[in-house]
């Protein structure tokens, strides 16, 4: 490398130009590595989402929510489903989870579950004075509906 630099200096190429080019290449390389890391992280999140949807605890809670006529304040199945989609809604809103994962059955299921649980969510919001309870579950369902309108 030193011979190349010496040769460049002898032929009149400015050393600062060479260093600028090396710096630019380093910067671009760093950006590419960073972007690849973000893409990899998003796909790991997608994998985690699909794994979570298949967990027996979620399947059991989801089935209980579909089967229930009403929900008591401390209903564990309702709480599990609400917290599940609140978590994934937050991940989607912050762009860690791409919205396309909800383009199929998981999106339709989330909307059906939200509609089923909405009176319960509103009751808990009123009871606890927390208007933001399950806000990302609600946000997620609105976005899913917008995507399929």
SSE layout and pairings?
Blueprint: H1 2-10, H2 15-53, H3 56-67, H4 76-93, H5 105-128, H6 135-147
Helix pairs in contact: 3-4, 4-5, 4-6, 5-6
The end-to-end distance, rounded to whole angstroms, is 60 Å
- Anisotropy-based shape: elongated
Poorly predicted runs = none
Provide the gyration radius in Å: 25 Å
Characterize the largest beta sheet: strand count, sense, and whether it forms a barrel. none
Category from helices, strands and their pairing = mainly alpha
**Please, what is the average pLDDT?**
87
Number of domains: 2
The SSE string, one letter per element, is: HHHHHH
Number of helices: 6
Question: How many β strands by DSSP?
Answer: 0
Strand content: under 5%
Secondary structure: helix percent: over 70%
Written description of the protein model:
This protein is an all-alpha fold and 149 residues long. It folds into two domains: 1-41; 55-147, no CATH class. Helix content is 77%, strand content 0%. The chain has six helices and no strands. The model has no long low-confidence stretch (mean pLDDT 87).
């Amino acid at each position: 490398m030193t011979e190349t630099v010496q040769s460049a200096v002898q032929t009149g190429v400015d050393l600062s130009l060479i260093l600028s080019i090396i710096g630019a290449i380093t910067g671009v390389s760093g950006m590419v590595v960073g972007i690849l890391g973000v893409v990899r992280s998003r796909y790991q999140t997608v994998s985690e989402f699909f794994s979570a949807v298949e967990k027996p605890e979620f399947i059991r809670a989801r089935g209980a929510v579909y089967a229930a006529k009403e929900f008591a304040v401390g209903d564990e199945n309702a709480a599990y489903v609400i917290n599940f989609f609140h978590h994934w809604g937050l991940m989607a809103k912050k762009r860690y989870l791409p919205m396309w994962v909800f383009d199929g059955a998981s999106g339709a299921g989330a909307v059906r579950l939200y509609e089923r649980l909405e009176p319960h969510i509103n009751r808990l919001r009123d009871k606890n004075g927390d208007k933001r309870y399950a806000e990302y579950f609600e946000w997620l369902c609105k976005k899913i509906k917008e995507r399929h309108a």
